[in-house]
Structures are given as C-alpha cells and as structure tokens.
Amino acid sequence: MKETAKSHITFVIVAGIVRPVMNLLMNKKWEGLEKLPAGGFIAVPNHCTEIDPLVIGHMLYNQKRMPHFLAKGSLFKVPVLGSVLRNTKQVPVERSTAGANRSLQVAREVVDEGGAIIIYPEGTLTRDPELWPMKGHTGAARMALESGIPVVPMAHWGAHEVFPRYAKRFHVFPRKTSRVLVGDPVDLSAFAGRPLDKATLTEATNVIMDAISELLASLRGGQPPLVRWDPSAHNQSTHGRFVERGGNPGTASNPGTAADSGTATDGVQ
After folding, report:
1. CA 191 – CA 121 distance, rounded (Å)
2. Which DSSP letter does residue 259 get?
3. What is the pLDDT of residues 236-254, one digit of tens each?
4. For residues 171 and 164, is the Cβ–Cβ distance under 8 A?
5. Which residues of the chain fall short of a pLDDT of 50?
C-alpha cells in the first residue's frame, strides 16, 4: 500500500515549507541510507535538540519514506494542526489501553503503507551532560516485539550546534553540518516468544539503545559512558524541561516544546 492522495498532498505542502528552511539553516551529510528497509519500519534516533524531528523527518522524506511521529492525542483536536496530523497519518498516543490499541493499529497501517514511525526511546531531550543517549523507555521495543516491525537505529550530530538544547535562537553562522548515520536493523530475534514483561522489554530496550550509542560514537569519534545517564538517579524529571544551572536539577521548566511535550516520543507504553 502507499500513502493516500490526501496524505501525499499534505506531506508535499509541509515539506515545501520545512525543507527550504532546513537547507538554509545547515549543511547535511547523510550516511547509511542503503540500510533503510524496503518496507515500513520504526526509526529510533538519539534526541539532543528540539529540532531533531525536523532533521530526521527531512532525511526520511528525501528518501521518499514518509515520516510519522507519535503525537499526544490532544493535539489531534487542535484546529488546523489536528487536520494536518490526521491527513499525514501521525500516530496518536493515549495512555488508556483502548488508546494504546488504536495507536498500534495506526502504526501497523503506516508500516503497511511503507512509512516510517519515528520513536525517540529517551522520551525527551537527553539529560546527559555530554549529550550521549540516556536510559531509554520501552515503547519502541514493545511496539516492535508486538508487531514484528523492524527497528532501525539512527544517530545524528551537529544540529545541536545550530539550535542548542533549550536555546532561544538559532546559530546559523559559521555554517554547521548536520550528520545522520543510519544503522542496520536491530536484531531482536533473541526476544521472540518471550513474555513481554518488564525484564524482557528493558533488555530489548538496552539492545536498541546500545545500537544508537554505537552509531553516535562513530559520528562523534568518542566513546559513550559505560553507564547510561538515568534521570531518576540524578533527581531529574523524565519528561519536560529541566533546570541545568541556577535551579533545582529535577524540576521542570516551561514544558510544552514540540520535542518535549507535543510529541509523545517514548512510544506506546
């Protein structure tokens, strides 16, 4: 199946606005594109700046793979925005069991149509001081194991120099380059047939996070921490903004950014 005519037209309109802006903001270097599956898949990138969804969405759209994000169900009720989200078949996320089942149904439709579902396993912008991937949520692993959808790890680096985490303005000059590296689909075959309990999902999530960290290490030329940053171990909130200096590290400040509040990036839990 392919995207509907309405979905295609809406994507073209949105891309006509977003792509020129992204090209103006930064140079691009995309690697590993040949590893994208022929059919639909779950993309799991790292998350270090609010414009990450635009970076990954731009790359996928240019490969003729329509990007679909998990978005809070309430956003679908917002005039105009809700229409755009529905027309481009973004995936609504609700916390109820019925809502989760609807989300999974839409996700399967997206994959059947050859689209890409983008899930940020970290659930919010990384709290790691050096911007390495932090402890992941289990939503991507659960969706993959429940549905058999392949999981493709991705890492990007450089966009955070254009728009640093929680920044208020863009830094266009000197011109920066955003690099994206696509990895091989994550092998989750070891978890086939196992009950989807907390232990299984946590283990599968760690495998996914390892793959993302390895890709980012390749881009950065460094080594990620041996132990991933855990916000709860540092008295930090797991969602929304946090105060890094001049306040309590665990408090949220000004929640509501597209990356931290509007997009339900932690998957269907």
Report:
1. 18
2. I
3. 887 777 655 444 434 333 3
4. yes
5. 1, 245-269
